Amino acid sequence: MLGLRGPYEAVFSGIEWSTAGVYSQTVARALEAGLSMYEGEAWYDMDEPEDLLRLEGSSGYAPTSPLAPRRS
Q1: Domain-by-domain residue ranges, the chain?
Q2: Which of 71, 69, 66, 5 is nearest to 35 (CA)?
Q3: How open is the CA angle 22-23-24, to the nearest 5 degrees?
Q4: Which DSSP letter does residue 41 get?
Q5: How far is the C-alpha of 34 from the C-alpha of 27, rounded, in Å?
Q6: 39 by DSSP, 3-state: which?
Q7: Helix (H) / strand (E) containing 22
Q8: What is the rounded CA–CA span in Å between residue 11 and residue 32?
Q9: Residue 52 pLDDT > 70, yes or no?
Q10: What is the longest distance spanned by two Cα atoms in the chain?
Q11: Lower CB density within 10 Å: C or N end of the chain?
């Protein structure tokens, strides 16, 4: 998950999507753009509809909720 305070198109430019390098490339672009970063605990990838079912089963996520669960 990536949270930004504004539109930073450069962060997403030149990324080789759907590869093992997406994360490292995105971090590199963010740092090149002068953004500060906080890296939280690693979780699993969320990019397929089935991943939402996994999230629901593992965290108490309610699909009707407008917010993702906060992990502490």
Answers
A1: 9-59
A2: 5
A3: 95
A4: -
A5: 11
A6: coil
A7: helix 22-32
A8: 8
A9: yes
A10: 37
A11: C
Kindly give, in sequence order, each residue whose CB lies less than 8 Å from that of residue 8, ignoring residues fewer than 6 positions away. Answer: 30, 33, 35
14 pLDDT tier (thresholds 50, 70, 90): very high
Which contacts qualify for 2-7: CB closer than 8 Å, 24 or more apart? 2/26, 2/30, 4/35
Backbone angles phi, psi at 51, to 5 degrees: -65, -30
Tokens of 11: 């962060």
Within 13 Å and on the Cβ side, how many CA atoms surround 15? Answer: 19
Both structure tokens of 8: 């930073």
Q: How many residues does the chain have?
A: 72
pLDDT at residue number 5 = 87
Structure tokens at 50: 């089935």
Comparing C-alpha atoms, which of 47, 5, 40 is closest to residue 22?
47
